Amino acid sequence: MLEKTTSILKWAAIPALIVVALLSCLAGRYEAAMNSTICLSAAVLVQRAAWLREYGWAAVCVAAVVVFSPLFLVTKIFLLMGITCIAACLMIVSALRPQPVAIL
Questions:
Q1: Average pLDDT over residues 26-54
Q2: How far apart are CA 1 and CA 11, in angstroms?
Q3: Which of 25, 31, 60, 85 is the most buried (most CB within 10 A)?
Q4: What is the mean pLDDT of residues 80-90?
Q5: How far apart are CA 56 and CA 34, in angstroms?
Q6: What's the confidence (pLDDT) of residue 93?
Q7: Is the pLDDT of residue 26 over 90?
Q8: Contact, 56 vs 63, CB < 8 A?
């Protein structure tokens, strides 16, 4: 029962973040507070997804954190490029790690 509830909440979190993000421009002077709330909730989801070793969900939430962060657009673009480069380098390092050979 608990796994089913967490699965439903997980699948409902991303569309909820997207809907709130689309409506944040209508918030007027509270837009910065709303974007900060979206950013913080996505950051909590990143931590939870990484703890559960669901790296796909963590990547989606990292993208949500970067998109809704209160940084300038250029800073967001370079932040996403940096995160992508770090992830690619980590994948290359793990793929090219020497593997033990079985002795015949």
A1: 80
A2: 16
A3: 60
A4: 88
A5: 25
A6: 92
A7: no
A8: no
Q: What is the pLDDT of residue 81?
A: 87
Residues in the chain, total: 104
47 contact partners, CB below 8 Å, separation of at least 6: none
Alpha helices in the chain (DSSP H): 2-23, 31-51, 55-67, 73-95
pLDDT cut 70: percent of the chain above it = 97
User: What is the Cα–Cα distance from 58 to 82, expressed in whole angstroms?
Assistant: 16
Distance CA 37, CA 35 (A): 5
Amino acid at 61: C
- Among the listed residues 47, 44, 55, the one whose alpha carbon sits nearest the alpha carbon of residue 94: 55
Q: Is 21 helix (H, G, I), strand (E, B) or coil?
A: helix
b or e along 70-92 (b: 16 or more beta carbons within 10 Å of the residue's beta carbon)?
Answer: eeeeeeeeeeeeeeeeeeeeeee
Full-model pTM: 0.56
Q: What is the pLDDT of residue 92?
A: 92
Judge contact between 60 and 14, C-beta under 8 A.
yes
